[in-house]
Amino acid sequence: MSEPDTRGRRVVVWMYVSAVAVAGLFGYVLGIIVYGDGGGPAGPLVEGSGASYGAIGPITFQLNPLNLAAFGVVSVGFMLGVGLLAIVYVSGRADA
């Protein structure tokens, strides 16, 4: 019996993990640039805005580097994850 070729799946998983990690890194860097390390608006892009909280529907969170990194990881991970699960489901149904 021959084993199924899983190299393509590994590549897709590594691309997924890389995209989620990059989203977290970009969120963290954006948080440092805009909001600084002090937790309040201190970066060069903040002049006049004064916003220190973000909201997604009923969820409110403080805008700081760690929270923006978490937001990037969760949002990109969820969006790509749903797409990948749909592809796995459809490809499994097509093979059957």
From TrEMBL:
The chain crosses the membrane at residues 12-35, 68-90. It comes from the Archaea. Keywords: Membrane, Transmembrane, Transmembrane helix. InterPro entries: DUF7520 (IPR055942). Pfam families: DUF7520 (PF24364). The keyword Transmembrane applies. This is Cox cluster protein.
